[in-house]
Amino acid sequence: MNARTLGKPLDRVDGPLKVSGQARYAAEYPADGLLHGSVICSVIARGRIVRIDASAAEALEGVSLVLSHLNRPPLAQDDESYEDDDAADGSPFRPLFNERIRYSGQPVALVVADTLELARHAASLVRIEYQQQPHETDLRQALDRSHAAPAELPKPRGDADAAIAGAPLSLQLEYELPNEYHHPMEPHASTVMYQADGSLLVHDKTQGPQNSQQYLASVLKLDPSQVRVLSSFVGGAFGSGLRPQYQLPLAAMAALKLQRSVRVTLSRQQMFTFGYRPRAVQRLQLGAAADGKLQGLVHEVIGQTSRFEDFTEHVAEWSGMLYHCDHVRLAYRLVPLDVYTPLDMRAPGAATGLFALESAMDELAWAAGVDPLQLRLTNYAQTNQNEGKPYSSKELRACYQQGADAFGWSTRDPQPRSMRQGNQLVGYGMATGVWEAMQMPASARATLTADGRLIVASATCDIGPGTATAMTQIAAEALGLDPAQVIFKLGDSSLPKAPLQGGSFTVSSVGSAVQEACQALAAQLCDAARQLPDAPFTDGSALRFVDGRVQQGDDTRRAVELSTLLARHGSLEAEVQAQPSKQRERYASATHSAVFVEVQVDEQLGTVRVTRVVSAIAAGRVVNPKTARSQILGGVVWGVGMALHEEAMIDHGLGRCMNHNLADYHLPVHADIGDIEVIFVEEEDQIVNPLGSKGVGEIGIVGVAAAVANAVYHATGKRIRELPITLDKLL
């Protein structure tokens, strides 16, 4: 059988385990004598701990430990030991290191007891006295104290300010986004199993088991061989698990001190005490000809960060690459505040920057009296001007065309407030999306067992996009096997090295390694077949492994079955490290999208409902359109939430988030979501990586918030430049 599996909608290989409850997550692994930890968080935003009175908690039967900076195990003293694969510039946060308080919600103690309920009760009895210092958490109030971000922005090209000043059309615009917090279904948790030899077996909620392993070993001054991290199943992450979160070192410290197994799970409220998409103010200046052709563009970003790390993301760069413009100036500044360091969140930087850029392009279209779609075609970029490189492939025009046709964009009445359905004002909006198509070095091992199974392994993980399924398909395709014969092992720090799962580069990076490992295995099989005493091949013939056998060219009569080779050799194994090709360096590579949105706005109440979305995606070769479609659906829903719902409301007097629960921190639910159509535009790319795949994890959210905001303007005639778009802003 010729098992062509790439591009087919294969069901998730781990689906049965998940729907039957057999898939275990970080907080679900049993251990003999397992203890449970409850984290106590600081109630002040800046200052120091003066005294900790844990006597009432320690007096309770079943309480094993109240861990703080006063009695913790030895920790590394240097900043480098606390850095991880996703660390920002600066001095990383050190949990329970000393008495200093750097943000509200900082972990200050861990109560460990026989049960979680007892640990939480005991935690409520611990009394902590603080010496408070003045704090600052409001970005708006501190804009004048910003400093240049340590980011490599493209150099200015041309003279943007002069071009804008002399342009027939010019706009000066400002946009703002609030803090947005990660809320995966699975809260962060770590189960640290203390082993008889003093080593640690850790089940962690992470996007990189090897990252967590190296972090623990460095911070606790252990040999990496003493720490093994597993993350077999991850209940969502999209950035929240890129860096080791504080429950991991706290659980490990307690396990080492007590020489017992310890589990620490963060509460939903504590999910607001670490990384988030940072609040940002963006100022755009556009200068254009009368037809909307860009002549000059300035994009200035001011984002917030902590006082101990300079968190940066790619916010402004997209404005220099998405549209053709010869005069561009980009700027990025940071305001240090008494907060925790922000963290990458789905399409970090792009979701933020494209909201401002695509809203501004819509405003330019109205100012020029040009259809918003036509304006984007007028300013279409054939090359990436930031890099001065052609694209490895770019089917954005096809995204515009296919998306507009499916949506019915041409039926739109261009005048604001001109379309209605009963008491609902109807609006159409659109936006462009873009995300860089990246590839990182990655390793994989492929083993053919004596019974004919193919076992492929890499230390990547699966935060939900269907990584195990995609890797199974890639391996099956490479060796012409049925996917049912393939087992993909992941989520284990002891497996071949893999990068963090993020940036939409897992398929291109780990997938390329899987493909190369299987191809190396095929070469071994060909060599083994050629050495058979009765090999049916002619001298010097080219052999290939296809459809479960080694054959000479297309001649199925000159072939050796896999079973024959395995009977002779038992099993065969190959391990490779895949690197991005040198050819890639000559090109820019990106995933593109066109998003079209219909909204209905209640004229009396100001409520907004997204009734239809069409998202057309050009992402190269789509390995599994079924799981890929789910990624885009999730991205669109997240984008709707970004536009209409999500907002961390900060009490700046206390320096903490007030709506730190899922009742008050609003997220979209089923009733908020209308029809979503996903179109994968055909795009062939032989340069980006051997698979021709660009990844779809991030692109689904990019541009959605802007498309919603643009549709709201079309419906109401009111431009909302500060997210989320709530009824108080519309009325």
TrEMBL record:
Query: InterPro entries, per this entry?
Result: Ald_Oxase/Xan_DH_a/b, Ald_Oxase/Xan_DH_a/b_sf, Ald_Oxase/xanthine_DH-like, AldOxase/xan_DH_MoCoBD1, AldOxase/xan_DH_MoCoBD2, AldOxase/xan_DH_Mopterin-bd_sf
- In this protein, which residues make up the domain named Aldehyde oxidase/xanthine dehydrogenase a/b hammerhead? 20-134
Superkingdom is: Bacteria
Q: Which Gene3D superfamilies match?
A: Aldehyde oxidase/xanthine dehydrogenase, a/b hammerhead (3.90.1170.50), Aldehyde oxidase/xanthine dehydrogenase, molybdopterin binding domain (3.30.365.10)
Q: Which Pfam families match?
A: Ald_Xan_dh_C, MoCoBD_1, MoCoBD_2
State the name under which the record lists this protein.
Xanthine dehydrogenase family protein molybdopterin-binding subunit
Provenance organism: Phytopseudomonas seleniipraecipitans
